[in-house]
## 1
Amino acid sequence: MNNKKAYYITTPIYYVNDVPHIGHAYTTIAADTMARYKRLRGFDVLFTTGTDEHGQKIAKSAENLGIEPIELANRVVLKFRNLWPVLNIKEDDFIRTTEKRHEIVVQKIFNRLYEKGDIYKGEYEGWYCVPCETFWPESQIEGNKCPDCGRPLEKYKEESYFFRMSQYQEKLLQYIEQHPDCIQPESRKNEIVRFIQNGLKDQSVTRIKSSLNWGIDVPFDNQHVVYVWFDALINYLTVAGYGTDDRKFNFYWPEAVHLIGKDILRFHTIIWFTMLMAADIQPPKLVFSHGWWTIEGEKMSKSKGNVIDPYQVAEEFGPDAFRYFLLRELSFGQDGNFSRQLLIQRINYDLANDLGNLLSRTIAMTRIFCQGKIPEIQDKEEEVDRELRTLAGDTVDQVIKNMDTMAFNLALENIWTLVRRTNKYIDQTEPWVLGKDHAKTKRLNHVINYLAESLRIVSILVYPFIPMTAVKMWSQLGIKEEIEQMFIPEDTRWGKIQVGTRVNPGENLFPRIIEIKESEQDKSAQERDIIAKQDKEKVGTKKMDTISIEEFKRLDLRVGKVLSAEDIPGTQKLLKLKVDFKTEERTLVAGIKQYYSPESLINKNIVVIFNLEPATIRGIQSQGMLLAASDQDQVVLLTTEKDVDPGSKIR
Ligand code: MSP
């Protein structure tokens, strides 16, 4: 291959009986983040995902819809395939278990185990959980309910081939003991070990076609199809080139890391490890099982109607905000709670306030004070400079340490400590004060250089988590190289920013989200006041009550003509307006529903703050704010005394 080290990371392959939800998005985002991170660390990475298309669950769903299973699979697979680019996920391979390349490998492994005497024919008598696709012996169940998901079990008695899993019990325990890090987190590994110690039974690995014929044929007996988990687990070998590309397989397989949810850990350790042992293939290097998300404190379920649709979250909040939230909010092995409010808080505070502001302030100051070019440093560092530089170095070390143990949340915490420290550096060095004194130009240049350098390093560090944002940051900093070609730690060493690079002011990274709930209108207004106050303090105007004419000139006020107005359902105060400004048409969200009917607004001239940072309100991006006078009991729109052209400026 090449002289890079290999890294192979997989997600579970997802069932095609249902559309993607937050659980699917979570593992796949984590795997994508890890893949991007490892590439920055110089690894040759293979990152794969796919769909699990056989088995009774898919067959039943298809039957309920009155279609063939393959039709269902062909339909649903697109929902997964198309989701990944929407979430900025870039897999190297996407496998469907109905592909020929996979069938060949499954049959090969099945044959191998059979020839070895590890698969034998017998009769299965017992219980089966269709949603979990799991066999349950009588001894482990109570009241005909699945011990895992609690749903009713089906009983059957039929001819079946069995895998001699019981024979691998000791070997498996020994293997886990000798490779103590191969199952993580530790607490889950301990559960698995206890389970194995309680005794392994042979595993049924086929279904007779008369009861289920949706699967891969057993190679030497066309009356049977291979059990869906036996089939599905082998996907990890197929995509790595097992039996078709030995060089590829030998390169990647020893480095295999499976990311999975906690519910499928037994399959991925007990059944999978013993299958591999029987086939004389070394088990994967690591199986990491993550926790589950509850939704607003409740278990996610279709019947509760609280299933989170990743397409919708990405559309409303942007894929990077979703990625950031999922990886920042909880430690990867733990369960956690997804809530709209928490997501919005993370966006407003971490992404818009901390990161977005840092970038926009730095770019603005480079433009104002340094003709838009990254300036030179001075000869000597001051204490604040040294602190910032040292923290950046420590941050890189910490991020490496945390990413190596999949502690995504801690790595993000490390990066945000640097982001916040850099914001503080602005407050400490007060570039706007330095800018007033010619004698301080060298110092000012130094400060701006350090700000840009810190952001350059932050961009590389955040790239695996929020790739689209990192690329935007990189481009605003004016850096020409490709961010994905950078290396950690080499390119995150301090002092690599190129003096003279021209910055590119761009859009805000994350518009702040102002979510107005009926009961929270006043609270939200208060929050806006607080944010406005914080912003004021940030630009260093703390002590000013008056504004200068220059500051007033920064306000772009324009007249707009209302083209259309409509109600925003579910709100008491909000209307959505389309407004003509001659050069463009904009959407505005305005809290005037109680005072104006939508029809009464059509063709009215209104006065709008045209250069206000856009905000997303109830999922709608509001591009400006209209002005109105308010006294105690009414709100009255500002308009023009005579008709003027839309787009006219107010001076
Ligand atoms: N097809 C099997 C996996 C075969 S891998 C060889 C399967 N598919 S699945 O579509 O049901 O995938 C579910 C994945 O989503 C699992 O990893 C599961 O843990 C995860 N989640 C399902 N609900 C979840 C949450 N509420 N939260 C987080 N992850 C959850 O299992």
## 2
Amino acid sequence: MRLVVIGGVAAGLSAAARAKRLDPSMEVLVLEKGEHISYSACGLPYLLEGQVRDWLQLVGFTPERFLLEKNVSVRGGAEVAAIAHSRRQLTLLSGEKLHYDKLVIATGARARCPDTCLPLHTLADGVRLWEHLREAPPSRALVIGAGYIGLELAGALRARGWRVTLVDRNEHLLHREDPELTAILRRQLERHGVELMLAYDGPAPEAPLTVHATGLQPNTLLAESAGVELGHTGAIRVTEHMETNLPGIFAAGDCAETVHRVTGAPVWLPLGTTANKMGRIAGANAAGRRERFPGVVGASIVRVCGLGVALSGLSAAHARKAGFNPAAVRIRSRDRASYFRGRPVTVELVADKSTGRLLGGSVLGEYGVEGRVNVISTALQARMTVEDFLGLDLVYAPPYAPVMDSLLVAAQQLAKEL
Ligand code: FAD
């Protein structure tokens, strides 16, 4: 039995390693078209900023180490050009043909910008930009796209002394229709010297360095040409077992869609955390298990010029579009006891007026935002109401949290609203 995995980063390698661990008798082969495997694109902004000293630190495994430790062969520079599923055969760009019994497609996503632009998507993109920043003296940089990668990049370039302008067609930052959130982030960016051009539809201003962070699209061409169905989001449609419509072919990671656990609708949220988890499930099921991936609540976190911005679930605007009747509150509190260097934290919670069900929230602050947003995510997955949430037993000790956590302060306000 031979399992072939296409794509050698988060989803692909998680799938391959898990399949091999569960069924050591299976031959597992990973085909990766690029030169590098097993790297953290998530670390690229911190490489550019200078917090990570060398790009090699972002590489988890080389193919040699993956073989040694996981007993899985990985071939770099091996691009799959076609899948003939009726014959269970792959054709590589080199013309070589390979047989498979099971297949995991983990081809990721690609940057949505012209071929001539400089994106920040792959390790190669990051290294190219890193080398440029090491050679060129700081001058003016344009970052196009105000999603989380654009914001991280703008912060990184500012930290290196570049004059940065962040441009987006949209009026909102982080693509979250939330004017208050945009206002807070705008203040944070401007305080750190980032110029903003939002709702801008003109030609891109001239700058010595322009980086595109204009979004992604799922890498589905290969899958589609083999007869794999896509969903409404444009990514590969999979069941909760990561199966595609073709028996024996699984898909995972940025190339595949999943289910939003708050709305129940299919969603495409390409994130490394999700890619790893989907990959594990695809690998297990390719090895004969029947595990399920339950979907996501849309949890994400990003650092914006030192401010932690953690989001989960729906904004009020998104909730309204999804057919809920939302109420929302946003409060400012402290992350610890004020006499213990408590720093400001802003918490927003959104709930459905009709049922009291919690629908989403955000936490902004310098410290502790990850822990707090993870509580919100857990509550969303448990389909808690605001009343349930108010009953949570959350910790208190002056160096870590105030006696009444900011999450509970927000929930009390929201309960009054409801
Ligand atoms: P990819 O990592 O895109 O890997 C797919 C691989 O498939 C690629 O290497 C590609 O070369 C290969 N491939 C494609 N087609 C073929 C073919 N035909 N034949 C052979 N190989 C092929 N996520 C988070 O959760 N948190 C973060 O903080 C975060 N920060 C990020 C910061 C940046 C700058 C970037 C770019 C991404 C960040 N992400 C983050 C997202 C995360 O990196 C991705 O979601 C994750 O890498 C997706 O993994 P994947 O395996 O699905 O796809």
## 3
Amino acid sequence: MLLTLPGVLSPEEAAACRKTLLDARWDDGRITAGAQSALVKANLQLPEDAPAARQLGELILERLGRHAAFLAAALPQRVFPPLFNRYEAGMGFGDHIDNAVRIGGQPARRYRTDLSCTLFLSEPEDYDGGELVIDGAGSSSGVKLGAGDLLLYEASTVHRVTPVARGARLAAFFWVQSMVRDRGQRELLFDLDASIRGARAALGDAHPAAVRLTGTYHNLIRMWAEV
Ligand code: NI
């Protein structure tokens, strides 16, 4: 799954986030990297317990909690408290794969990282480079979204952030533990959900076929979800 979710934050909210992050204290991004990815990681990161990280993270989680496409695609069981990074000129993050299990939050708990999220906070015209490239995504060119837009992709993929050549790239990044662990099942449910919306719009919510299809969706969730 590789999905762009535009407007998770409004441009004004993204601008307010940038303003808050401007005054924050940034650490070396290798604090959360494993031994292997530390070798290729060069960026700055907000400490997890930084007040700005908590405050902005809560805003993002609140928005995602009522974002229909995010909920349908990710089927989140829990979402890792967002982390924040900053790439300045010359910084990048080479090929790596995200850790399968991460510990975070208050109180601390384990999250299985089924899906990775990058929420872009800088406007694309404010920096060169800094593209997110995901192997096997069907395109060799990287992704660079507008401020407030989110990219949702499989955490099982090798990916990288190309070096920033000008300006600075600010983003939030975090992971989703999905109720449905299997990627194929999750994608099938996302397709089915879209089909049901189409059928309901065409036939009406009360049409017997629409009701049965909705039932099938929920019965598949019952079969596959871990809650
Ligand atoms: Ni990564």
